[in-house]
Amino acid sequence: xxxxLRSALLLTLALGVPGLAxxxxxxxxxxxxxxxxxxxxEAPAEPEAPAPPAETEPEQxxxxxxxxxxxxxxxxxxxxxxxxxxxxxxxxxxxxxxxxTEGAxxxxxxxxxxxxxxxxxxxxxxxEAAAPETAPLRVIVVDAAxxxxxxxxxxxxxxxxxxxxxxxxxxxxxxxNTVSAAQxxxxxxPPTPADLWRVTYVSRSQRGVFAKVWAHEGRYVFEISxxxxxxxxxxxxxGTSGAEDLHExxxxxxxxxxxxxxxxxxxxxxxxxxxxxxxxxxxAAPAxxxxxxxxxxxxxxxxxxxxxTRRWDVSLQTEAAFGTSSEFFYNHLIGLRLGFRITKxxxxxxxxxxxxLRGRGQRESNLLPMLQLTxxxxxSRRSDLTVPIRAAVGYLxxxxxxxxxxxxxxxxxxxxWEIGADILVPTFWFVDDEVQISLNVGxxxxxxx
Length: 449
What we know:
By secondary structure, this protein is an alpha+beta fold. It is built from seven helices and 14 strands.
């Protein structure tokens, strides 16, 4: 019992006074003796235990000290062995107490769990993140091209196509960016399906729409074409409408030609957008180029042709006849000729004229009917001037037959009117078993029916 009390007093002094920690008593209990004592010798009498410091009052333990006999209370002033005193560091190898100490840093795993943000709850409560929504497809609508109708009709068609595309779920390219994209690629108007695909690519859209509108038999005719960046199509739709159901028909045709957004193939569009790598060509033996015949293309502005394109014509003619016989005479003819074009240059005419003739003692009046055949010879391919060569046979009542040959010039002044002159006109008059010859000069004005 005394040995236990002695050990408790020494432990108390060592903890309370640090300078005494190195001074230990060597004895049978395993504690070294202070300097100057004889090792291994038994003391004749046990020295009294030193009293503890007066100012140190140890805490009262809640449980008996470790190592004390069961049922024996510790001595007065002894320090319990349940743990280190307040403010004293724990001995080396002593495990920390269970549970975090107030003010201590949390464990590494706990810090990681605290820093990780929690996932937002979903509609079904599973805790998984919802997939992002797909952006709507863009569509470019090129202004409709009106042919032979009022421009406001094309504006109505364009606006109806834009409204229908928006209702189908497309995102529209605004008109200003549409014009800018067309100007960047110098798009011809109206565009072909290939041009529509290119302007769709330049505007960063997925699909493009273009419409034509014209009139036929009192109704509007619409043709809507769609180009798709994924290589599908082109798509076409055609229909007719009146002025009352124009918007309904255009909306129906737009829905027929423009596919729904869900049918767009993004992977195919990405492949079409990427430039294809150039394939290396195998080296070939040099070959001498051979001259190939080329057709010479001659570009020239087409002239407005005034060639006769109508079958029938009517001519007003006046003609003066100068006799060449020993007895000079003068005859004058004024008449009408109805002509029919048989071929491009061959004409047949029926001529009837009032004839003012020299009589035996005075001027005589008569009627001269004639049947006339004309062949027109063109002077040049670039000129509408022709040389008419005519042969006519007629009969002068109470006198005899008349044969007329002529050559002159004809020139069309418009699509219907033509002027002509007979310059060299030898005419043979058969009168009283005599043949009289005259040289005539005539002018004519022709109207094509």
